[in-house]
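Appendix B, record 7
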Amino acid sequence: MVEGDSMRPRCEPGDIVAVDPDQSPRNGCLVVAKLKNDGVVLRRFVPMEAERVKLIPYNELYPSVEYSLNEFHWIYPVLSTVRKEMS
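Structure tokens (predicted):
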């Protein structure tokens, strides 16, 4: 379940994302990534040179951050998102 507003307007707090741990992320796709020292994040994935990646939020109030691949436990591509309708 999405928490926070770093991915607005693409994903809203309360949205649910489904990931595929058997697939590798592709350039520009949404991913859920478990960092070794910083929790779990939902971001756009951009591979870089020298085993580095950039994770990019949709919300411009948040910075893009570059990481070494060895800083992650895992990175899974998002297959779908479900928005919970207000009742």
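Remarks on this record: Strands lie at 16-19, 30-35, 39-47, 52-56, 65-68, 72-82. The domain at 16-82 is CATH 2.10.109.10 (Umud Fragment, subunit A).
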